[in-house]
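CORE FACILITY INTAKE
Project code: CF-77B
Contact: R.S. (postdoc)
Sample description: multi-component assembly, two entities in total
Requested service: structural model of the whole complex
Turnaround: standard
Below are the sequence entries exactly as provided by the requester. Do not edit them.
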Amino acid sequence: LAKTTQPISMDSYEGQEVNITCSHNNIATNDYITWYQQFPSQGPRFIIQGYKTKVTNEVASLFIPADRKSSTLSLPRVSLSDTAVYYCLVPGFQKLVFGTGTRLLVSP
Amino acid sequence: EAQVTQNPRYLITVTGKKLTVTCSQNMNHEYMSWYRQDPGLGLRQIYYSMNVEVTDKGDVPEGYKVSRKEKRNFPLILESPSPNQTSLYFCASTAARQSSYNEQFFGPGTRLTVL
């Protein structure tokens, strides 16, 4: 399983764009990059997944450079309800390994 | 509504008293898994199941048992709970396609306290 490294915490204000970068230097050829969101006392929720270049859905965008050794989750115009922990994962077959994630605090 | 349900949501028990935490999903998913979450340690996988009657150990299986007699249910059994099993437990499920193992649906969690 590829180890991931991401910032422990980030602060932002409502309406700003937030970019959370994750490094995964030893990602394997077949690995996908996956991001989850978790609110306190709730189960993690899948946000987005990508393999290369850019993926966008109704919640976020995921940018993956050509070498795939890092990825950036972009949350456009965050609101207070985006305050949560965000996990970057490079899942192995049948397994999700969650690190401590990035704690995002959005203030008014 | 597609969901994963867990019961109970909260449980306080004493050391050595057997307990079962139930998990059920209504999405016809083949794959199910149990995780525990502890402060500073993230989520760690306890057991997983690829399908009915197929289970395997995750990273922290000691002190736990599971069974998968039906596709929709995946109970977690603590035969003799100990205080170090005090934790927040999550059940998750997904369809059995390799890329979709990455998109797992999590239950609401069960907060267990063992005194």
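Facility notes:
- The mean pLDDT of chain A is 91.
- Chain A is about 0% helix and 45% strand.
Invoice: internal transfer
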